[in-house]
Amino acid sequence: MITVTGGHGFLGSYVVEKLRARGHRVFVPIHSLYDLRDPKHVEAMFDAVRPDKVIHLAASCGGIGANQKNSGKFFYDNILMGVNLMEAARLNGVSKFVQVGTVCSYPKYCPVPFKEEDIWDGYPEITNAPYGIAKRALLTMAQAYREQYNFNAVYLIPTNLYGPRDNFDPETSHVIPALIRKFVDAKRRGLKEIEVWGSGTVTREFLYVEDAADAIVAATEKYDSGAPVNIGSGYEIEIKGLVAVIAEIVGFEGTVRFDTSKPDGQPRRRLDCMWARKAFGWVSRTPLGEGLRKTVGWYLEEDSNAS
């Protein structure tokens, strides 16, 4: 039995589907029954389910705006969930604990491409530092538990994800779903101009959600080392270029104005993913343009059904 926290969420839903397709039995905890911030709830979950493996995907997170508004909550929620789950997994003899981290843990001015050994060489970008530090602390916990208790905890670092089923709430969404919704709404309303946060000159790496799920499943089945592993596409794009691609897919022909009074976040992001290829044979397969078309198509269908 594999317990997948956050298995009803964006990334988690794909991980659960892929695990079940490969014959694994999967349990997904429901927040209303098991608040993972409460150690008593976590203990009750382990008593009820007795998993052999745990994949920890549940997280409190969002885009730049959400990180700025919820810095304390994101730190508190993420540190407590990870600490409670890893300790309970150790005490209950779980054979493998897969902790999924975040690219936000890397230093703001990390050399590009980011290598796993660079994660401690500076403070994260300030707008997402509390979230990134909370996740980074769980890497220390995983490695300490491996050293002291011989606990098989592995740590994966995915880059920015996108795809169908993403969060399109304008208050909490990340950049790709936020842009897709903004362009679709503008086209429907006949707007001639839209506004985008930041200068547009920073770069990001994006990974299609199903590729990320494949990496997590592969690591769960094949990876047993304490060294953290980057999970990314290896493709870096300037935000202005991303905006142009999404506008073209949606069919928005108006003007885009970049609001430079809003924060850009980290200057550049791209991961070195050679270790994932060597360690468990994973590489990303979905080109950005293809993934964006699938995501826009899914959103348009969902939006039409909701109308």
Short key terms for the protein model shown above:
307 residues; alpha/beta; Rossmann fold; 3-stranded mixed beta sheet; 15% strand; globular
What topology does this entry show?
Layout: E1 2-5, H1 10-21, E2 26-27, H2 39-49, E3 53-56, H3 64-69, H4 71-91, E4 96-100, H5 129-149, E5 153-158, E6 160-162, H6 175-189, E7 193-197, E8 203-208, H7 209-222, E9 229-231, E10 236-238, H8 239-250, E11 255-259, H9 274-280, H10 288-306
Parallel strand pairs: 1-2, 1-3, 3-4, 4-5, 5-9, 6-8, 7-11
Antiparallel strand pairs: 8-10
Helix pairs in contact: 1-7, 2-4, 4-5, 6-8, 6-10, 8-10
Kindly describe this structure.
Helix content is 45%, strand content 15%. By secondary structure, the chain is of the alpha/beta class. The protein is globular and about 60 Å long.
Element order: H for helix, E for strand? EHEHEHHEHEEHEEHEEHEHH
Q: Superfamily at the CATH H level of the domain at 2-164 and 206-234 and 269-285?
A: NAD(P)-binding Rossmann-like Domain
Poorly predicted ranges? none
Structural class: alpha/beta
Helix content: 40-55%
CATH topology of the domain at 2-164 and 206-234 and 269-285: Rossmann fold
- Could you say which overall geometry the principal axes of the C-alpha atoms support? globular
How many angstroms separate the termini? 40 Å
What is the oligomer described by this structure? single chain
Cα-atom radius of gyration: 19 Å
Quickly count the helices.
Answer: 10
